[in-house]
Amino acid sequence: MFQWLRSLIFTIIVYGAMLPVGIIWLPAALRSRAGAMRAAKAWCRFVLWLAPWLVGIRGEVRGTPPEGEVMIAAKHQSFLDIILIISAVPHGKFIMKRELIRAPILGWYALRIGCVPVDRGRRGQAVRQMLADVREGRADPGQLVIYPQGTRVPPGEYRPYKSGTGALYAELGQPCVPVACNVGLFWPKKGVMKYPGRAVVEFLDPIPPGLPAPDFMAQVEAVIEGASDRLMAGTG
Question: What is the pTM (predicted TM-score) of this model?
Fold first, then answer.
């Protein structure tokens, strides 16, 4: 019961902090995308500072976060893996569900840093539009993060990897950095409860460009799932 109360207080503080952070950084965010990204990183640093002593979650980034123009294909278990990725890379921008742009503060900042909203159930059309943006040079620079399974997947469950990831890899012609995690064990997909432990996001060895899409999809799934299983098993 005590951990649940601490989790509730943590949740209220974390989401409530979006308002003052958003207001304080608004002038910088209006001036540039870099200003908006500094706001996002400031909020993420606050969450990662608060989590250990309030709910016992210690965030850790392993591996080498990429700095150049790359595609990141990441395991998605909860909001925490987003926070850790943003804190680790210079300018991460996410392919996100379109409903999030209606979220106060969060939605506007997400668009401002270059996130790409997609429609649930129309992902193929959204990916085609995104590919068109890349071809025409209108995509903002940064590390483009895609969740190959398309949604948060709780530990122990499986969802197939979507073909849009392979299409994006082929179009970009960039290395793909797979990312594994175990964060769903401590910050679940649903509910208030948070569990103490070491929540890890791990950047793995890049997959070079130029592979046939089926070969790439098989490799990225095997690498991410294998490393995520290892991280989750390591927690006991």
Answer: 0.93
